[in-house]
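During the second half of the funding period, the structural biology subgroup turned its attention to how the target accommodates small molecules. The most pressing case was magnesium ion, which had performed well in the primary screen but for which no bound structure existed. We therefore specified the complex as follows and requested a full 3D prediction, including the ligand pose.
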Amino acid sequence: MTARQPASDLGRFAKLGIRSDADLLLHLPLRYEDETRVVPIDAVRAGETVQVGGEVVRAEVVGRPRKMLQVELDDGTGRIALRFLHYYPSQVAQLQPGRRVRAHGDVRGGLFGLEMVHPRYRLSGPAERLPQRLTPVYPTVAGIGQAELRRTILEALASADWPDTLRPGAAERLGLPPLMDSLRLLHQPPPDAPLSAFEDRSHPAWRRLVFEELLAQQLSLKRARAARARQRAVPLPDEAAPARLLATLPFALTGAQRRAWAEVSRDLLGGEPMNRLLQGDVGSGKTVIAALAAMQAIGSGRQAALMAPTEILAEQHYRKLGPWLAPLGVRLAWLAGSLTPSAKKKVRAAAAAGEVDLLVGTHALVEESVELPTLGLAIVDEQHRFGVAQRLALRAGRGDALPHQLMMSATPIPRTLAMTYYADLDVSVIDELPPGRTPIVTKLVSEGRRDEVVSRVRAAVAQGRQAYWVCPLIEESEALELQTAIDTHAALSVELEGLRVGLVHGRQPSGEKAATMDAFSRGEVDLLVSTTVIEVGVDVPNASLMVIEHAERFGLAQLHQLRGRVGRGTAESVCVLLYRPPLSANARERLRTMYETTDGFEIARRDLQLRGPGEFLGARQSGLSLLRFADLERDAELVEAARDEAAAMLAGPVGAVDAHLARWLAGREEFLKA
Ligand code: ADP
Ligand code: MG
């Protein structure tokens, strides 16, 4: 569909994401106002939202030091005041005695009778016809007025005739009304139903649009997936190499790990680029699957890369993988932003010369323009913490073949999300923890009993155990968060005299951080005080006590990750959530959830309920902005229907699919392809 608007107008509308007639039609109202009726002033009550009409009988600018415009309206049945705290000189000129005016707004009881503050108003003729439809109120931004937006949208609507893109009969089967009817109804509802009927997203017209939107998303994802299937990857055929690693491991894979590994290994054998998400709760043993995959790549004569979101985590991987892989002849290297320029240069040179088999690091892997000429496998740990661009950069093609990609995440993705945002991924799930773990007991302790918690730390250390102490998250200020950690470390060092108390935070030089982490791993530090840098990945089985200060400030996913740092050995583990009362309802719900369950999936489900999918996925999932109307919790059943319809449409004529995507996603599809 072509743009009917002069370019300059559309340019301004672009601020609203409106670039075409299709975008205009899909710019749906937030709510409605009823201007179809004028209420006699003597029937108006304070607290109502109404339209009144009458003649201006008095208009004056009053008040000091702040002036306001005060207008009095008379309709023969009574009088009402209109007050404007901000006004233009042109308004004073407009609203002169004798003029007829219709005003719409909230009525309140003022000092001298009923009044409306800043009503919407228009000058009217004596026998003017009232609107026959409810007045839509659209989302807008400064500089684009409702009247202009409404006029432009209604013009576009009047000339629009969108053929249905669904297969014949599909909408009826789903109980959804026709598309054009739904659009007309939502932009111009008839006045015979209460306003709220059309504001309710479960109205059939809304459901039709939600379905259309979800369908566009499914079509786009399925197309992206088909496009990937047409791309080539280098097959990685050496199954003997991972078998050699398995034979040297001190443990056997769990059943869930075996299944996941079989899926990954099979993908790697093929010439189609793997795009697989390995999902498993904290501590479920994803790293070993990554190591096996790396072995298959390296054995097949290719390089592998592993990227993790934080330096601590990347370093942990490096230290864990070294002892497993180096004895098998694998040449590992490590790259992070904190390395000296000359050290980075060395790593880059070795990687480019093919002298590195497995490169482990942070996003420095994609930012330091490292060349891995024979990259066959890119592994991304905690993938949800990376931006789309970074993930794409790591798997960018070398020559004409794409590397296989394995992503890992401990944040379980509820089914509806997996079906929408991750429809382009294959998913393997590790739904079993390695044996020998003892369940973690969670305790909620009010800040007033902090002393008892300190004694508990002492007792744990006396039994030969180690502990974590996580300092409060201070979202507003990283500097303050850092200072709090330093202060807490100082205070605990005094309170726990005789214990070896270490400190790690994100601003430490990496050498210092690594030295402390190492000492903690070797059991030479009893209590590790930290900011949330230890949130992911850290693995010290002898640590059996976790204290989280101001736990009420943390999100559920974060608390779950933090708690997962303990319970990794055979000792009974305890997680103490220290909180400061009073708790907000939401914080109470989060802490209750942590107390009630350690199941990552259940926690993710409640998290989704408490936060909604946008927050849940994080701002980095830019594909999110594509869903304007759908709500994945509320519309779960439509997600399934949209997926089925998308599959059927893709098997049919291509024209309908193209038309549908052009309407809904023109120019925005790239977000979905990561
Ligand atoms: P995550 O899935 O959170 O990344 P890790 O891969 O760090 O978990 O594994 C947690 C711990 O469990 C590590 O110490 C790892 O060596 C160990 N582990 C992994 N798989 C097994 C297994 N099958 N049996 C025993 N221990 C295992
Ligand atoms: Mg991990």
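Two results from this model are relevant to the next phase. The pocket of adenosine-5'-diphosphate (ligand 1) is lined by residues 251, 253-254, 257, 280, 282-288, 410, 434, 539, 568 (CB under 6 Å). The longest helix spans residues 204-230.
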